[in-house]
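name: query_chain
kind: protein
chains: 1
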Amino acid sequence: MNTRENNPAPSNPLGIDGIEFIEYATSEPLALGALLERLGFEQVGRHRSREVVLYTQGGMNIIVNADPAAWAGFGHEVQSTVLSAVALRVRDANAAYRHVTDLGAWPIPTRAGAMELNIPGVHGSGDTIIYFVDRYQDFSIYDVDFKPASHDRKQTTALAGLHFFGVVQAVRQDRTREWIDFYAQLMGFSVLPEGQFFGILPKGTLLASPCRQFYIQLIEPPQGTEDMHWDEELIRLGFGTPDVLAATALLQQRGVVFVDRAPTQVCERGALTQLYKGGVSFELVHSQR
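structure:
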Protein backbone atom coordinates (compact mmCIF):
# COMPACT_ATOMS: atom_id res chain seq x y z
CA MET A 1 0.00 0.00 0.00
CA ASN A 2 1.32 3.41 -0.91
CA THR A 3 1.38 6.06 1.82
CA ARG A 4 1.87 9.76 1.46
CA GLU A 5 3.66 11.77 4.10
CA ASN A 6 1.82 14.79 5.41
CA ASN A 7 4.51 17.41 4.85
CA PRO A 8 2.96 20.87 4.63
CA ALA A 9 4.37 23.26 2.09
CA PRO A 10 6.81 25.82 3.54
CA SER A 11 5.00 28.98 4.60
CA ASN A 12 6.26 32.38 3.52
CA PRO A 13 3.61 34.79 4.83
CA LEU A 14 5.67 37.91 4.15
CA GLY A 15 6.98 36.86 0.75
CA ILE A 16 10.56 37.10 2.05
CA ASP A 17 13.06 37.10 -0.83
CA GLY A 18 16.45 37.49 0.84
CA ILE A 19 18.32 40.25 2.67
CA GLU A 20 18.21 43.75 1.19
CA PHE A 21 20.81 45.33 3.48
CA ILE A 22 22.74 44.93 6.69
CA GLU A 23 23.28 48.03 8.81
CA TYR A 24 26.14 48.72 11.19
CA ALA A 25 25.98 51.59 13.66
CA THR A 26 29.46 52.81 14.47
CA SER A 27 31.45 55.59 16.04
CA GLU A 28 34.37 54.69 13.72
CA PRO A 29 32.99 54.79 10.17
CA LEU A 30 36.36 55.21 8.46
CA ALA A 31 37.83 52.08 10.08
CA LEU A 32 34.73 50.03 9.27
CA GLY A 33 34.59 51.38 5.72
CA ALA A 34 38.24 50.45 5.12
CA LEU A 35 37.54 46.92 6.36
CA LEU A 36 34.51 46.58 4.07
CA GLU A 37 36.60 47.69 1.11
CA ARG A 38 39.18 44.99 1.92
CA LEU A 39 36.28 42.53 1.85
CA GLY A 40 35.44 43.70 -1.66
CA PHE A 41 32.72 46.27 -1.00
CA GLU A 42 32.63 49.58 -2.84
CA GLN A 43 31.32 52.86 -1.49
CA VAL A 44 28.51 53.82 -3.86
CA GLY A 45 26.52 56.48 -2.05
CA ARG A 46 26.11 58.89 0.84
CA HIS A 47 22.91 59.81 2.61
CA ARG A 48 21.61 63.21 1.58
CA SER A 49 21.22 64.56 5.11
CA ARG A 50 22.83 62.15 7.59
CA GLU A 51 26.24 60.65 8.30
CA VAL A 52 25.37 57.38 6.58
CA VAL A 53 27.30 55.62 3.79
CA LEU A 54 26.20 52.81 1.45
CA TYR A 55 28.58 50.03 0.41
CA THR A 56 27.75 47.45 -2.26
CA GLN A 57 29.24 44.21 -3.56
CA GLY A 58 27.35 42.09 -6.05
CA GLY A 59 23.82 41.77 -4.67
CA MET A 60 24.84 42.75 -1.13
CA ASN A 61 24.30 46.15 0.46
CA ILE A 62 25.81 47.29 3.76
CA ILE A 63 24.92 50.59 5.41
CA VAL A 64 27.43 52.22 7.74
CA ASN A 65 25.53 54.54 10.05
CA ALA A 66 27.62 57.02 12.03
CA ASP A 67 24.83 59.52 12.60
CA PRO A 68 24.63 60.35 16.34
CA ALA A 69 20.84 60.09 16.17
CA ALA A 70 21.19 56.41 15.27
CA TRP A 71 22.22 55.70 18.85
CA ALA A 72 19.24 57.37 20.47
CA GLY A 73 17.29 54.13 20.56
CA PHE A 74 20.15 52.17 22.09
CA GLY A 75 19.90 54.00 25.40
CA HIS A 76 23.64 54.19 26.05
CA GLU A 77 26.76 55.83 24.74
CA VAL A 78 28.27 53.62 22.06
CA GLN A 79 32.01 53.28 21.87
CA SER A 80 32.23 50.57 19.25
CA THR A 81 30.55 49.08 16.19
CA VAL A 82 27.37 47.03 16.37
CA LEU A 83 25.29 45.12 13.84
CA SER A 84 22.20 47.27 14.28
CA ALA A 85 19.66 46.23 11.64
CA VAL A 86 18.69 43.68 9.00
CA ALA A 87 16.38 44.65 6.14
CA LEU A 88 14.36 41.84 4.57
CA ARG A 89 13.12 41.90 1.00
CA VAL A 90 9.40 41.24 1.11
CA ARG A 91 6.43 41.19 -1.26
CA ASP A 92 4.71 44.21 0.33
CA ALA A 93 6.49 46.16 3.07
CA ASN A 94 3.40 47.70 4.63
CA ALA A 95 1.51 44.39 4.57
CA ALA A 96 4.51 42.64 6.18
CA TYR A 97 4.65 45.31 8.88
CA ARG A 98 0.94 44.95 9.63
CA HIS A 99 1.19 41.15 9.69
CA VAL A 100 3.99 40.97 12.26
CA THR A 101 2.69 43.79 14.47
CA ASP A 102 -0.78 42.20 14.51
CA LEU A 103 0.95 39.08 15.84
CA GLY A 104 2.69 41.00 18.61
CA ALA A 105 5.94 42.41 17.18
CA TRP A 106 6.91 45.81 18.60
CA PRO A 107 6.89 48.56 15.97
CA ILE A 108 9.68 51.11 15.80
CA PRO A 109 8.74 54.80 15.71
CA THR A 110 8.98 56.61 12.39
CA ARG A 111 12.53 57.89 11.94
CA ALA A 112 12.28 59.43 8.50
CA GLY A 113 12.90 63.13 8.20
CA ALA A 114 11.52 65.55 5.64
CA MET A 115 11.85 64.24 2.06
CA GLU A 116 13.15 60.89 3.35
CA LEU A 117 11.75 57.44 2.67
CA ASN A 118 9.99 55.79 5.62
CA ILE A 119 10.97 52.12 5.89
CA PRO A 120 8.64 50.13 8.17
CA GLY A 121 10.29 48.01 10.81
CA VAL A 122 9.98 46.25 14.16
CA HIS A 123 12.23 45.60 17.12
CA GLY A 124 14.48 42.56 16.85
CA SER A 125 17.09 41.19 19.21
CA GLY A 126 18.27 43.65 21.87
CA ASP A 127 18.33 47.13 20.31
CA THR A 128 18.36 45.90 16.72
CA ILE A 129 15.73 46.52 14.05
CA ILE A 130 14.17 44.32 11.38
CA TYR A 131 13.16 46.41 8.36
CA PHE A 132 10.85 45.43 5.52
CA VAL A 133 11.71 46.56 1.99
CA ASP A 134 9.72 45.97 -1.20
CA ARG A 135 11.60 48.35 -3.50
CA TYR A 136 14.59 46.28 -4.61
CA GLN A 137 14.15 45.52 -8.30
CA ASP A 138 13.64 48.27 -10.92
CA PHE A 139 13.65 50.95 -8.21
CA SER A 140 15.39 50.89 -4.86
CA ILE A 141 15.23 52.68 -1.53
CA TYR A 142 18.67 54.14 -2.19
CA ASP A 143 17.37 56.17 -5.14
CA VAL A 144 15.48 58.36 -2.66
CA ASP A 145 17.78 58.81 0.34
CA PHE A 146 21.30 58.47 -1.08
CA LYS A 147 23.40 60.62 -3.34
CA PRO A 148 25.35 58.28 -5.68
CA ALA A 149 29.14 58.37 -5.61
CA SER A 150 29.14 58.67 -9.42
CA HIS A 151 26.56 59.37 -12.10
CA ASP A 152 27.10 56.00 -13.75
CA ARG A 153 26.62 53.69 -10.78
CA LYS A 154 27.42 50.17 -11.93
CA GLN A 155 26.55 46.77 -10.54
CA THR A 156 29.66 45.55 -8.75
CA THR A 157 30.80 41.95 -9.09
CA ALA A 158 31.19 39.97 -5.88
CA LEU A 159 34.62 38.61 -5.03
CA ALA A 160 34.75 34.80 -5.09
CA GLY A 161 30.97 34.60 -5.41
CA LEU A 162 30.38 36.15 -1.99
CA HIS A 163 26.74 36.56 -0.94
CA PHE A 164 24.79 37.08 2.27
CA PHE A 165 24.52 33.76 4.11
CA GLY A 166 23.07 34.83 7.45
CA VAL A 167 23.53 36.39 10.85
CA VAL A 168 24.49 35.02 14.26
CA GLN A 169 22.31 36.13 17.18
CA ALA A 170 23.22 35.80 20.85
CA VAL A 171 20.28 34.90 23.10
CA ARG A 172 20.10 34.59 26.86
CA GLN A 173 20.07 31.27 28.68
CA ASP A 174 16.95 29.19 27.92
CA ARG A 175 15.57 31.83 25.55
CA THR A 176 16.14 29.93 22.29
CA ARG A 177 12.59 28.57 22.22
CA GLU A 178 11.13 32.08 22.47
CA TRP A 179 13.20 33.31 19.54
CA ILE A 180 12.34 30.26 17.46
CA ASP A 181 8.67 31.08 18.01
CA PHE A 182 9.30 34.75 17.12
CA TYR A 183 10.87 33.99 13.75
CA ALA A 184 8.69 30.97 12.94
CA GLN A 185 5.26 32.36 13.83
CA LEU A 186 5.78 35.91 12.59
CA MET A 187 7.92 35.32 9.50
CA GLY A 188 7.82 31.65 8.53
CA PHE A 189 11.36 30.59 9.49
CA SER A 190 11.93 26.90 10.24
CA VAL A 191 14.41 25.04 12.45
CA LEU A 192 16.95 22.86 10.65
CA PRO A 193 17.23 19.25 11.83
CA GLU A 194 19.58 18.66 14.76
CA GLY A 195 23.09 17.94 13.52
CA GLN A 196 22.73 19.93 10.29
CA PHE A 197 25.04 22.92 10.32
CA PHE A 198 27.24 25.05 8.11
CA GLY A 199 30.69 26.52 8.50
CA ILE A 200 33.16 25.80 11.29
CA LEU A 201 31.10 26.87 14.31
CA PRO A 202 28.48 24.10 14.65
CA LYS A 203 26.80 25.30 17.81
CA GLY A 204 23.44 26.78 18.61
CA THR A 205 20.22 26.44 16.62
CA LEU A 206 19.92 27.18 12.91
CA LEU A 207 16.80 28.73 11.43
CA ALA A 208 16.24 28.75 7.67
CA SER A 209 14.41 31.65 6.05
CA PRO A 210 11.25 30.64 4.18
CA CYS A 211 12.94 31.63 0.90
CA ARG A 212 15.95 29.44 1.81
CA GLN A 213 18.33 32.25 0.86
CA PHE A 214 19.76 32.94 4.32
CA TYR A 215 19.89 31.63 7.89
CA ILE A 216 19.79 32.86 11.48
CA GLN A 217 21.94 31.09 14.08
CA LEU A 218 20.81 31.39 17.70
CA ILE A 219 23.52 30.94 20.32
CA GLU A 220 23.05 30.75 24.09
CA PRO A 221 25.96 31.37 26.50
CA PRO A 222 28.29 28.35 26.77
CA GLN A 223 28.13 26.17 29.85
CA GLY A 224 30.38 27.30 32.69
CA THR A 225 30.08 30.99 31.76
CA GLU A 226 27.18 31.89 34.04
CA ASP A 227 29.07 34.90 35.41
CA MET A 228 29.86 36.28 31.94
CA HIS A 229 27.87 39.27 30.69
CA TRP A 230 25.81 38.05 27.73
CA ASP A 231 23.60 40.51 25.87
CA GLU A 232 20.93 39.57 23.36
CA GLU A 233 22.19 41.04 20.11
CA LEU A 234 23.32 40.30 16.57
CA ILE A 235 27.00 39.46 16.82
CA ARG A 236 28.27 38.41 13.40
CA LEU A 237 27.50 38.49 9.68
CA GLY A 238 28.16 35.44 7.53
CA PHE A 239 29.06 35.43 3.82
CA GLY A 240 28.49 32.41 1.63
CA THR A 241 30.98 31.40 -1.05
CA PRO A 242 31.21 28.35 -3.34
CA ASP A 243 34.94 27.94 -2.56
CA VAL A 244 36.01 28.95 0.95
CA LEU A 245 39.72 28.27 0.41
CA ALA A 246 39.86 30.35 -2.77
CA ALA A 247 37.87 33.16 -1.15
CA THR A 248 40.08 33.12 1.93
CA ALA A 249 43.27 33.28 -0.15
CA LEU A 250 41.91 36.18 -2.19
CA LEU A 251 40.80 38.13 0.87
CA GLN A 252 44.11 37.51 2.63
CA GLN A 253 45.84 39.12 -0.33
CA ARG A 254 43.60 42.13 0.25
CA GLY A 255 44.63 42.36 3.92
CA VAL A 256 41.84 40.43 5.66
CA VAL A 257 43.16 38.35 8.58
CA PHE A 258 41.56 34.99 9.44
CA VAL A 259 41.73 32.97 12.65
CA ASP A 260 43.81 29.86 11.95
CA ARG A 261 44.02 27.97 15.23
CA ALA A 262 41.94 25.22 16.80
CA PRO A 263 39.03 24.87 16.68
CA THR A 264 38.47 27.50 13.98
CA GLN A 265 41.11 26.74 11.39
CA VAL A 266 40.36 27.75 7.84
CA CYS A 267 38.98 24.74 5.93
CA GLU A 268 36.65 23.86 3.06
CA ARG A 269 33.59 24.32 5.30
CA GLY A 270 34.32 27.83 6.48
CA ALA A 271 36.58 30.49 7.98
CA LEU A 272 36.38 33.18 10.63
CA THR A 273 38.07 36.58 10.50
CA GLN A 274 39.87 38.06 13.45
CA LEU A 275 37.99 40.42 15.73
CA TYR A 276 38.58 43.84 14.21
CA LYS A 277 38.53 47.26 15.82
CA GLY A 278 35.11 47.99 17.27
CA GLY A 279 34.34 44.31 17.85
CA VAL A 280 33.55 43.39 14.22
CA SER A 281 34.12 39.92 12.75
CA PHE A 282 32.86 38.06 9.69
CA GLU A 283 32.41 34.41 8.82
CA LEU A 284 32.81 32.61 5.49
CA VAL A 285 30.60 29.56 4.88
CA HIS A 286 30.65 27.09 2.00
CA SER A 287 27.48 27.80 0.02
CA GLN A 288 26.36 27.33 -3.56
CA ARG A 289 24.12 30.28 -4.38
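note: The two ends are 39 Å apart (CA to CA).
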